[in-house]
Amino acid sequence: MPYQQSALDAARLVARGAALLAAVVGAAGLSGWVFGLELLRRGPGSDAAMSANTAVALLALGVSLLLVTRRPLTPGMTVVARAGGALAAVLGGLTAVEYVTGVALGIDELLFKDDTARMASEVPGRMAPNTAAALVIGGVAVLCASAARLPAWTSQIPGLAVLTLGMLRIYGFAYAVPELERFGAYKGMALYTGMALVLLGIAAFLARPDRGPAGLLMNAGTTGALGRRLFVTVLVVPPLLGGLVLAGEDAGLFGARLGTALLVCGHVAVFTTVVFAALVVGRRVELAHARAAWQVRQNELLQAFMDHTPAVMFVKDLDGRFLAVNTTFEESLGLPRARVLGRRDRDVMPPDLARQARAADLAMLAEGEPTQHEELIALPGGSRSFLTSLFPLKNASGAPYAVCGVVTDITDRVAAQREVRRANRRFLALLESAPDALLITDGQGVIVLANAQVQKLLGRSPADLVGTPVVDLVPAPRRRRHDALLRAYLRQVDPRPVVVDQGLYGLSGDGAEFPVEVSVSSLRADEETRVFLSVRDITERRLLEAERAERFEEHRRIAYTLQHSLMGEPSSLPYLPAAHRYLASVQDPGVGGDWFDIIPLDAHRTGIVVGDVMGRGLEAAAVMGQMRAASHALARTDVPPSRLMTGLDAFVADLADQLVTCVYLVVDQSTHEVTLCSAGHLPVIALPPDGPARTLRTPVGVPLGVNDPRAAGVPFEQATQPVAPGTTLALYTDGLVERPGTDIETQIDTLARTLGTALEGVPADREGLDQTADLLVKTLLPDTAAHDDDVTLLLVRLPVPKGEGHRA
């Protein structure tokens, strides 16, 4: 941290300055002996003078600490520093031996004759005992500070001891207390010596400011700031209060006892203030720690989310260094996270892939908005298609500080889309090869598309017909009636496909009119309407009525066969009783877009799908057949319901102007859960064995085909709900419950109530479900011969584990 580094640099500067000043004091005292200057040997108002040995030792310690504080130490600097420390320790130690043993070792006047003694008890040239002790401790501090392998406290604690001895001398001088200057009756410490010892203590303590007790005091955090304030308070406040009390006593304002009381009160007041200030700082530290712990937890949750995401996820800084990756990223590269974090793309990816990734990051940052693109990447196991989403992470000011990416393997989806496009091309080819003329108009009856058969039927090219009102293809005297029929069809609330062959005529290119049969269907999506007109010349049919009737019946049989062959029969599963009913509309050729299927997925899971292709006729049936095949194939891949809907949506998007509703369920017999996803379909009704019928709640997405395939559409969501064993599920299409003039919600409620009533007393087997299905159809469709829409009903009874009862 920059602040931390600046604090350490300042501490080292203070240490060097203190060491230099201590060396200057020692040199000044030594100069006083050399030149006989009393002022340099003895401070003003001081009885004791600095001895020559003390001056040499202080100079040596000052120079040694000045070298020690200049990191890194060279071998030569280390030798000089240790020599200075050893010299001071030896001088102090020999003097201490002299005091203890009473034997003069001949070192006191080794350099100069001492004529400064003022007391009979003083030995000429001998330093004070407290000075000797301080020099020994100071020498030890220097020796420890010069040894990098020793802990920092080995030099810092002795430094504080030296500082304390020097402060005692200064306090004695400031408070006029001679007892603080000396040990007993021995010679006292010189004032200059006390000042130098304070400087040496500071230098020794701050020689290594990033470690030990000094590291605690100089750290950039809250505790360091609090410690420095407390340290300054301890050094300044007690001496100041003591000086004020002594001044009051000397002035006769109060006596010693009152002065002591005032001193105690002052200390209590000051340190109480310090304590509360420390509590405020401590509370801030606690809050910061709580916020940091919360942030750590959020980071852990984010990492857990990333690690459980099957897609590759990563976060990089603006220079391309990885800040976070998930387990899928590790698995894809075969590198552990520790070897990825802090490195760039080129350090962990193949060169080509790294350059491609970096270019994508820079392009996204240049745009400043999220980007998404597909790319084909050659991997050792073969080429794979990936969808890469990149977006910037921005700070509070809106400036990006990181890049987040999500890379999803969409090889299977791309293959499915490719197959869908092939199927769509085949379907369009099938339409072009149809024997009838096909006209598609907008909601105003203006032609927007025509197939190649209109050339043969009407004598006009398909391109020439685009933009022409469809009534212009009718003989002029009959146009009003034809236009009225078309508009009446479009005014219906939910127009169904119809086939009209009475009173309709076409106009050929040479002006001749001929009778036609027109199949009409419509598709409404949002505010757009498309009308599908299949036009056939029925001149020969009109001439041969009997043959026409026979052909019509044959056409109906073919249509029914096509419908049932496309729909197929659902799987009959012994552990999952089911019953179904399908009724084709009586107002069209008998084909439509409803389908249903029961798909065994594994030993414990079964897929159930019901869908409805909007519109009627062969086109709807053909779409239905493709949808049933596609849904069956996707379900067999064991994709979740939401992904199945996404795949079907992509399929429908490639079909021209198609709209499909669908619901897909996955029943898990082992966990008694149903996972379902709905694309605009009616709700599934569930009847538990011990309660009333209810609809299964699930997010209802838009119908298939609504989303724009060129842009991100509304996603399909799935929901999982518990279901009791023995529950009966009812799936159906809108033909069963939708009637003109009735509310569809009311019809659904009627279906639910009828289901609950019908299953009372009915055995929980296939025959019982068949009886219930007949009753539901009869109740909801009183006149089955007049219904105008396809009807699909599927009842499924969930199995009951052995040993449990069932609904009677």
Automatic annotation (TrEMBL):
Ranges for domain PAC: 371-422
- Record flagged with keyword Oxidoreductase: no
Entry-linked InterPro entries: Bact_Sigma-Reg, PAS, PAS-assoc_C, PAS-like_dom_sf, PAS_4, PPM-type-like_dom_sf, PPM-type_phosphatase-like_dom
Q: Name one GO molecular function term.
A: phosphatase activity
Q: Which Gene3D superfamilies match?
A: PAS domain, PPM-type phosphatase domain
Protein keywords: Hydrolase, Membrane, Transmembrane, Transmembrane helix
Pfam entry (one): PAS_4
Answer yes or no on keyword Zinc-finger.
no
TM segment ranges: 13-36, 48-68, 80-107, 127-148, 160-177, 189-209, 230-248, 260-281
Q: Which residues form the PAS domain?
A: 298-369, 423-474
The molecule here is called: Magnesium or manganese-dependent protein phosphatase
